[in-house]
């Protein structure tokens, strides 16, 4: 009897130790710091912010409803390092007069970083929008320590403003036609509809024409004359 009691006690003790050990391990594993970002990433869903943002339309789309005056307000975020005045001095960043249409990372005698200077091409609506969205993704290693403007509306407004700060403003692109893709579908639908009508027409032809036998044979509405 004593032996059995000891065995049972032993098992209970062992179970306790296992449970305790388990909870310590679990605590280590699961009780870690709260993650900075809560929730789970879902495949196919792009996270908001940090250069991500939801699927964006081309900048021309936002330019159509942008306002240069609002862009001047947004430009205050840049004013610590830039001015866009005609003949304005370079500061922490280069002077931005007439920058749209200028070679990327070359103008105004500014000491550009290799990252931007080696980019090539000229500034246009699209690459300038990409640059301002995230300078460090556009030109990794750039000296422009500015996080970026995540809102396409802000970028469009500032682009319009910058374009005005120029002796040769660039033409503003037209808003892209949104119906480019559905056009094909529409054509197909129209074809189907045409087919449907021609089928219908054929059906109508096949059907017997119904005459009304009770109609007045003479068509004058008069009864036959009587003597
Ligand atoms: C903290 C300072 C700083 C801020 C804020 C800043 N920039 Fe810059 N910017 C720079 C520097 C420095 C460069 C040169 C980058 C290089 O050489 O890599 C630059 C380069 C540029 C260029 C390229 C010019 C050229 O001739 O190729 C443009 C355009 C520009 N900035 C626009 C802006 C706009 C618009 C904003 C505000 C939304 C802004 N920057 C905010 C410092 C800044």
UniProtKB/TrEMBL annotation:
Ranges of residues in domain Cytochrome c: 66-166
Segments for region (Disordered): 167-227
Feature: compositional bias, Low complexity: 175-196
InterPro entries from the UniProt entry: Cyt_c-like_dom, Cyt_c-like_dom_sf, Cyt_c_1A/1B
Gene3D superfamilies, per database record: Cytochrome c-like domain
Keyword Metal-binding among record annotations: yes
GO molecular function, one term: metal ion binding
Alphabetically ordered keywords of this record: Electron transport, Heme, Iron, Metal-binding, Transport
Pfam families named among the record's database cross-references: Cytochrom_C
KW Electron transport (keyword) present: yes
PANTHER family: CYTOCHROME C (PTHR11961)
Descriptive protein name: Cytochrome c family protein
Organism of provenance: Sphingomonas sabuli
């Amino acid at each position: 009897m004593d032996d059995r009691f000891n065995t049972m006690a032993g098992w209970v003790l062992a179970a306790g130790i296992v449970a305790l050990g388990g909870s310590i391990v679990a605590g280590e594993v699961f009780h870690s710091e709260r993650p900075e970002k809560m929730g789970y990433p879902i495949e196919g869903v792009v996270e908001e912010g940090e250069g991500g943002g939801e699927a964006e339309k081309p900048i021309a789309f936002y330019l159509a409803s942008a306002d240069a005056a609002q862009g001047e307000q947004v430009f205050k975020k840049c004013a610590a390092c830039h001015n866009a005045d005609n003949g304005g001095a370079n500061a922490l960043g280069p002077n931005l007069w007439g920058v749209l249409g200028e070679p990327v990372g070359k103008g105004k005698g500014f000491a550009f970083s290799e990252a931007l200077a080696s980019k090539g091409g000229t500034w246009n609506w699209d690459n300038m929008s990409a640059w301002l969205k995230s300078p460090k993704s556009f030109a990794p290693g750039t000296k422009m320590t500015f996080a970026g403007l995540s809102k396409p509306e802000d970028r469009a407004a500032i682009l319009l403003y910058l374009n005005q700060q120029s002796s040769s403003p660039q033409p503003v692109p037209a808003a892209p036609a949104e119906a480019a893709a559905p056009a094909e579908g529409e054509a197909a639908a129209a074809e189907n509809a045409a087919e449907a009508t021609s089928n219908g027409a054929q059906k109508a032809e096949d059907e017997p024409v119904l005459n009304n036998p009770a109609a007045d044979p003479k068509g004058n509405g008069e009864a036959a004359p009587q003597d």
